[in-house]
Design a protein that fits this description.
alpha/beta, globular, seven-stranded mixed β-sheet, Aconitase, domain 4
Length: 188
Amino acid sequence: MSTAHVFGDDVTAAQIFAPDRVPTGDGRLAPHCLAALDQSFAERVTPGDFVVAGREFGCGVYRANAAPTLRETGVGAVLAESFGRLFLRDAIGVGLPVVEVPDVTAHVADGDVLTVDPAAGELRNETTGSTSPLGSYPAFVTWSLRSTRQHRVRPDRRTDHRPSPSVADRCGRNRPATGRGVELSESD
């Protein structure tokens, strides 16, 4: 069970981490997280809390520090009605859980206590007793995650760390002329 910190629609990546902010002396980004919308957010958030937002969370101009900044604050997950595509990819890439929940802002208020149950596929608002179904990832994210899994080293793959053959080698351009079953003479 964690506390909800609710924001509205169209929270941009620049509002998550403003480009004019610089890391603190020790390199931390978290003190500046969502400061454009709520100056006290970084002080109030505790590890495991949820950021709840409306449509297009993380939209706008690409900011590479947006997702890592949220992760550094210790946010347990971002629950939103939809996400900006680049933010969604970055969040997954840095290990920040992001979940689409239809109409989440209609069922959750700032300070509500929430529980996410991935096995049941639902979000429970412990404060009001209501539940909401969790959405699924968009097709491009599912495809990307599936593609990433396929590229992991499998036991049946070679592990002797020999250099991979070049593209030309794999396409047969660097094979000897006899390698294709056709003998070529010097006059050809």
